Amino acid sequence: MSLPAPDPIARFLELQATAAPLEPEHATAATLATADLEGRPSARIVLVKSASPGGFVFYTNRESRKGRELDGNPWAALCFFWPSIVRQVRVEGTVERLDDAESDAYFASRERGSQVGAWASRQSTPLPSREALEDRVRHVEARFAGQPVPRPPFWGGYRLNPQRIEFWQGKESRLHDRLLYERDGDGWVTARLAP
């Protein structure tokens, strides 16, 4: 890994752009780890829709397990892995809800089937059968027939504000390269980590 760049977000975006043509379906995928109030962790894959100095943005049902955990414990972590370039990026920080305008704008850009699905699925709750979900989809399609599908009030975006970003590059003999950026006021402090 080259010498530390002063801006870890720019470094992240460069790596993601390198991976995107090789992994077009997975370049924005990351494992999101959250924890409940007792500290019990859970993790799942999410699609990170943007990364900027302001943070890493993803969207979900806010009544889902991850939404409830983020409401109770706003610390979370993201882990991106691009096997095609043997790179991983870990991001840790606090998470905040996006405002309604940002969530509305993104929701309006989604394809209609995904919009309908957001209304139909009570994410993370028990479902009696697949047919019950399909019935909910038909009900939502009928409800919004011939009109735009508005964003559900229980669905929206989150922004992870990074406090730590670690870049990992796979090397032979497991002597991997690891570079850590930690937030220091408005800047970053860097350190190399042993593999």
Chain-wise SSE layout:
Layout (H helix, E strand, L loop, with lengths): L7 H12 L9 E7 L5 E7 L2 E3 L2 E7 L3 H8 L2 E8 L4 E11 L2 H10 L2 H9 L9 H14 L11 E15 L7 E8 L2 E7 L2
Please provide a written account of the structure.
- By secondary structure, the protein is of the alpha+beta class.
- It has one domain: Roll (Pnp Oxidase, Chain A).
- The chain contains 5 helices and 9 strands.
- Strands 1, 2, 3, 4, 5, 6, 7, 8 and 9 form a 9-stranded antiparallel β-sheet that branches.
- α4 (112-120) packs across α5 (130-143).
- It is elongated.
How do you describe this structure in short?
By secondary structure, the protein is α+β, with helices and mostly antiparallel strands.
* Average pLDDT number: 95
Share of residues in helices: 25-40%
What percentage of amino acids are in beta strands? 35-45%
Largest sheet: 9 strands, antiparallel
Which of globular, elongated, flat, extended, rod-shaped describes the shape? elongated
Question: Taking Cα atoms only, what radius of gyration do you get, to the nearest Å?
Answer: 19 Å
Low-confidence stretches: none
Structural class: alpha+beta
- By CATH, the architecture is named Roll
Number of domains: 1
Tell me the CATH superfamily.
Electron Transport, Fmn-binding Protein, Chain A
Describe the structure using short key phrases:
Pnp Oxidase, Chain A; elongated; alpha+beta; 195 residues
